[in-house]
Amino acid sequence: MREPINWRQSIRRRLSGTAIQWSFLRAVGGVSIVRASGGALLFVSQLLLASWMGADDFGIYSFAWACVAILATLVGLGMPGTSVRFIAKYEAEGDPSRLRGLLRFSRVNTLLAGLIVTPLAMAATVAFSGESRYADALCLAFLAIRALAFLNLDAAFARGFNWMTGSAIAEQIARPTILIMLGALVVVLVMDPDVGHFVVACVGAYVLASLVQHLCVRKAVEARMPAGERRAEPTEWLAVSAGMLLLNGSQTIRMNTDPLLVGLMLQPADVAIYTAAMRTATLVSIVMMVAGVVAQPRIS
Known about the structure:
The protein is mostly helical and 300 residues long. 85% of the residues lie in helices and 0% in strands. The chain has 11 helices and no strands. It has helices at 7-53, 55-75, 79-93, 96-128, 135-141, 145-160, 164-189, 195-224, 234-265, 268-281, 286-299.
């Protein structure tokens, strides 16, 4: 015999589903605005840097930051992806002790990895670069590895807590804005600036953006989750992080291998031309990227 329909429960389910869809769309819209604005700022910053430095120096600059992007992902140890997955899980389960343990575990391991990888990368550059034109810029750029790793980690924390728009502001808006201002200061204050001056300006932009984001995320987390007991699940977290590192590391290497190969086989000016073309082409992928960023913690 057919059971009677409970219209109240049916209406509640429909309204709940509609609310979730609208919440998802609002988050996508907010992140889309930030990402679109950030993409425009990043594009403008690259145009300005190319005009200020010239083709050869901009090629050296682009080569150095491709290396930094790869090493910063490795320093992250896969913890950003793991954090998004488990923060959402522990929030849903009401488990603040393991949540506190995860945040501390992620920060400590990222810091330790950065302290190991940065000097090793510098030493390897000095030992094996020979007369390469990239060596000095690489050593300076490697100073930003830890800042970029923490920028990625704190953005992942924000996504895990479902602060979608806030998670993208530091990387997409603050960093290119600071870079433009510092680059303009270099042009105004330095008589004959070279690529090293602009690499230092970019390091400063990463450090400042990372510091501001860290303070904001830390304050928001403390307001949402008071201090208390910490529980650690290092075996589970590291197991998931290994897969995340393999996935995200492979993707980062794939995205940055092209300019490295161009730089190794051709001249810095060719790296500059290739980088400009690649940055322009990747602007079309923003919609898919935004949907993925917003969906991750909800699925978790």
